[in-house]
Amino acid sequence: MYVAVKGGEKAIENAHDWLDEERRGDRELPRITPEQIDQQLRLAVDRVMTEGSLHDRKLAALAIRQARGDQIEAIFLLRAYRTTLPRFGEAEPIDTAAMQVKRRISSTFKDLPGGQVLGPTFDYTHRLIDVDDDGESAVAAEAEAEEAAAPRVVNLLDREGLIEAEKPAGAETEPADITRTPLEFPAGRDARLQRLARGDEGYLLALGYSTQRGYARSHPFAGEIRHGAVAVEFAPPELGFAIEIGEIDVTECQMITQFSGSETAPPQFTQGYGLTFGFCERKAMAMALVDRALRASDFGEEVTAPAQDEEFVLGHCDNVQATGFVEHLKLPHYVDFQSELELVRKLRREHAGRHAAGASDQSMAAE
């Protein structure tokens, strides 16, 4: 990423002061606190944590304030901080089937075991700005939590063998870690999903949308979207067994797509998968759409669309890298531009010369 530039020290210092002043805004108003951002702009915090690859609500809220609400800048700040943290081990895989569900919907089965839970969603609002939204907020009614199990929809299909079997990595297989090892192609699905989880929400949304419009010819069903709290467990080597060290909120999406079969596989449904920190439903859905599109080669499908091109998708989905490359254009390019300026002048002189010679030849031919 392009980060370094030399310039006038005093000018840069003044620019920093000006930025700080702009960030503070009207000093007659109270300074917004990270706690307020965390509580009242939760979706922004969730996105920054997801694409910043660090679950820390307070730090993410602080980064959003420091970045003046620019989420990509906040993601950059969080990722940079993440690199300073020591790593003392790896948590056990989270069990989303045991999630304390706050929202759970499926577009494939109306009567799910465990029921559908609408949860806090914009889906049924009228999308009208409430100009009087400065009073007391509503308080939702509470009910006793149900103990009923909420199995995944894919498990229901799996009982009949109607969906592709999941292929968990063996215990001896070390999962990829794209934060430590550069991404290589072809990428394993573990590395691919990590890259997509870090990927820019808008970029993935556009690619997922393209698959629905015919590029990659995919129109899946939302098998299940669930959001809630899951336990995080860690197994210290000295203990030899896992202990729960906390809970985090996640959003999980499993898309189901029909597959007509091949010489080796019968007709069945296939899966696309998305997982994010917090409540990032749009991101999780887009991620699942793109994950399925990138699995084209797994099913012998012809690769015809950008969303199926692994190098294109994974190589351009990181918004911090993309921002660095685009925004480096703001840095001084005086020498490069002077060189191109001289070249354009020379080409114009040659072009004018050829044009004048051509006009002279035509005049002589006419005489």
TrEMBL record:
InterPro entries xref list: PhnI
Annotated keywords: Lyase
Annotated Pfam families: PhnI
Lyase as UniProt keyword: yes
Single biological process term from Gene Ontology: organic phosphonate metabolic process
Record's keyword annotation contains Lyase: yes
Tree of life domain: Bacteria
Annotated GO MF terms: lyase activity
Protein name: Carbon-phosphorus lyase complex subunit PhnI
Organism: Minwuia thermotolerans
Lineage, uppermost ranks: Bacteria, Pseudomonadati, Pseudomonadota, Alphaproteobacteria, Minwuiales
